[in-house]
Amino acid sequence: MEIAKQIGFKHHQVVITTNAGSRQRMPFPYQGDLLLYLMGSDGRPYAVNWTVKDQAHAFRERRYSAAKTPNQQKKDRDHAELRTALEQLHYASGGIRTVQMSLDRLDPIVVGNLDLLFPMHGLPLTLEPELLGEFSAEIEDAVDAGALIHPIIYRYAARWGKRDQFIARIYQDIWDRKLPVNFFKPILIDHPLDTDGGDLLAAYGKFFLEIEL
């Protein structure tokens, strides 16, 4: 409430019923969309607040897609600006940086690759760990050589069955950063995997930093 008063923002309130049965107004408990708990290179934990929208300009104007008069548009832009400032200052008072994250800040190919990998990354595999280790090593050698990997998948599946598990293993190795690939190129197992650049932490690591550079 104090921060809202300082910046001239009308803090939204809600009406609650107390244990005694009386009704009273209370400040609405604003909070960010996603609070990341991370570990720094020095071993010290820190947090980063992500406020999330579908498009970046949604941070600058409330109900940006609605038809409005110029006066209403100004009000919505002013409201969005103050609401954003409130959140940033609120978390900053606790030493937490706020990052504005929106889908259009990510490359569409990266989004597609993550959509492909995420359902597989925690999938339990029933094949023997030693066999999967041998498979991963052979896949890594093929990727390093710029060779196709699907013949390896077919060969292992022909002998051991469970083709889907071998495919899942590749996706898990990519997810765990054991098999580095270029995330800005489509990940297609019937094409040579591109390993030239495209590291996600190099491209988007700034969104996770404790202090903005």
* Residues in helices, as a percent range: 40-55%
Order of helices and strands: HEEEEHEHHHHH
- The radius of gyration over CA amounts to 24 Å
Point out poorly predicted stretches: none
Rounded mean pLDDT score: 90
Number of helices: 7
Report strand order across the widest sheet: 3-4-5
- Tell me, briefly, the overall form: elongated
Oligomer: single chain
Beta-strand content bin: 5-15%
Major sheet attributes: 3 strands, mixed
Number of strands: 5
Report, as a whole number of angstroms, the end-to-end distance: 30 Å
By secondary-structure content and strand pairing, the structural class works out as alpha+beta
Question: Would you kindly provide a written description of the structure presented here, covering whatever features stand out?
Answer:
41% of the residues lie in helices and 15% in strands. By secondary structure, it is of the alpha+beta class. A hairpin with a 5-residue loop joins strand 1 (13-17) and strand 2. Helix 4 crosses helix 6 (163-175). The protein is elongated.
